[in-house]
Amino acid sequence: MPVRSSWTPATARRQVLATAGALGAAAALLPARAAASTRTAPRTDGLPRRGTSVVLLGTQGGPPPDANRAGISSALVVDGATYLVDVGRKAVSQYAEAGLAWAGLRAVFVTHLHADHVAELFQVFLLGGFRLPAQGDTLAGPIPVYGPGPAGGLPPAYGGGPSPTTNPSDPTPGLAGFFDHANAAFAYSTNLFMRDSGVRETRGLADVREIALPVKAGFRQTAPDMTPFVVMEDDRVRVTAVLVPHGPVFPAFAYRFDTDHGSVTFSGDTTHHRNMISLARGSDVLIHEAINVRGWAGPAAVADHLLQGHVEVQNVGTVAQSADVGRLVLSHIGDMAEQTLDPRKWRRWAQRGYDGQVLVGSDLDVVRVC
């Protein structure tokens, strides 16, 4: 099946195009009704061998399952090599549905450790690496996984009062702890499969690398002003990052990928912040989250709390304009006020204050960078 690209690059860089409860808000939960998509799923078999593209594997904001959108996950494909950014619900199936090869996966980048961003992170290795190389498409392994270290502390409960604590002996594990616990949870299955089928040990397929911070920051000061810093570099991409404010979450990262064929910045979950604008400045494509709370009948205090961790779709265009990006793509999106997200209305909202192209992303959209 040929690629259905929802948005091909323009010749010019810029072209103008004519209730969640209080605890749910504290966890940045968006409702399951937040988005709907009826587009036919494309595959990426026809992606050129040379060039840079982004495949939106999942575009939903928030953890509650949505029948119409998969959880947040994006695949950057550069000259045939794939780099995953976040791995939410259904991401492993979407990766296969998109026609991407597990053997082509170069690295994984996690913006933060909210469940909707890592729901299938371990499954990339548990399932995507299940086959042996001689048996078919599988992970080359070990695959570098970059992301947050331990938060180091927890905030008080939203609204006050006591809150239970899960795993009190280690309540704020980072990426390494995440993989340690997941490996332990699947130990019986892995041990059986290694003995019965000769599969590789899952632990050896992921090279977990918690990102060292170049500035003083912590769970009480989550995103101090900073300049972008290099996370990794290989023969296809140079990846830089900054800390961004996402409510009480720490660390939370935005990532920028510079390639020979253009640059792409992923905001992660964030409010309007100069760190993200500095990172994204001059990018060819900005993949940015957005939320709509206008018209929502829920408590104003909860809406305000949500906006401490997200950008309103009506204001996201000013972020793109301030960063001087060529194109704006909305992903990790949710509408608190409407049962069904209206992409035309959302595009008009996102266009405010921005003179570039806007795409309201749907699952498996392919964005050609160059």
UniProtKB/TrEMBL annotation:
GO molecular function, one term: 3'-tRNA processing endoribonuclease activity
Biased composition (Low complexity): 163-174
Region of interest (Disordered), ranges: 154-174
CDD domains referenced in this protein's UniProt entry, alphabetically: arylsulfatase_AtsA-like_MBL-fold (cd07719)
Signal in keyword set: yes
One Pfam family matching this protein: Lactamase_B
PROSITE patterns reported in the protein's UniProt record: TAT
Residue ranges of domain Metallo-beta-lactamase in the record: 71-310
Annotated keywords: Endonuclease, Hydrolase, Nuclease, Signal
InterPro entries: AtsA-like_MBL-fold, Metallo-B-lactamas, RibonucZ/Hydroxyglut_hydro, TAT_signal
Signal peptide: 1-34
The keyword Signal belongs to this UniProt entry's keyword annotation: yes
Protein name from the UniProt record: MBL fold metallo-hydrolase
Naturally occurring in which organism (per UniProt): Streptomyces shenzhenensis
Lineage, uppermost ranks: Bacteria, Bacillati, Actinomycetota, Actinomycetes, Kitasatosporales
